[in-house]
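Task 17 of the worksheet. Students: predict the tertiary structure of the chain below and write it out as structure tokens. Keep your answer in the requested format; marks are given for formatting as well as content.
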Amino acid sequence: MLLAKDWKDFELLDVSNGEKLERWGNFVLQRPDPQVIWPEKGDEKLWHKIDAHYHRSESGGGKWEFKKQLPERWTVNYKNLKFYVKTMGFKHTGLFPEQAVNWDFMMEKIKSAKRPINVLNLFAYTGAASVACAAAGASVCHVDAAKEIVRRAKENLELSGLKEKPVRFITDDVIKFVKREIRRGRKYDGIVMDPPSFGRGPNGELWKLENQLYGLIDLCAQVLSDKPIFFLINSYTTGFAPGILENLLKIKVGKKYGGRVSSDALGLPIKSSNLILPCGVVARWEA
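Model answer:
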């Protein structure tokens, strides 16, 4: 398992009974996590120091309960990167801390290439991967279907002092965008994607992971350059084993470019115990 263990502004403090307790900077949040099916707590005292708690509704969704007034948003650092976080709908904060291991991976690949690198970031959300790649020196094309989320990605780039870096922000359906890039003849040296299980594009385009992921990878393989350096796929979809994603990359990328394909689960160490909380899976092709 790949562990995001180099954080200073984030800690997974404890987990118990479908809930996780996290420190984001100076604030402690309690959020649901259905994977935590055991009732034991690592440290009972930690659960009395909560600043905000997201309660999930049985009918869907939920709401935040604030124990104290929190800022509308605040900043967390990861190494030389900075990101805004906030209490959002559906329990989110705008950042997935376990992804730090992938940021490190991409930054190392970009820096070690010692040449100009173009990266395509699909389903790019609030832009953590885009910020990481830009910080490492790459040109980045950031694509997400949600206009407000793209705006927040721009703010994260500026927060890290990277406003002048060559980053294109595109609000569009991912599949339509990649098809246009094929027609334009644009090429990328690195591709990263974090496709949802289910979703809709800006014009109601339907996305179902199991039906469309293979086709998307096939399209993306057509915009890879002659000398790509990485292709990375994240997934939080229940039932998608790491090996499934690994097979897709072997079929569509490894056969043509050689290199190495690997896959693994992502995880966060739990401070109050010697346990690890699994947090999705990743597959990586690298030259």
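Marker's comment: The first strand starts at residue 2 and ends at 3. The radius of gyration is 19 Å.
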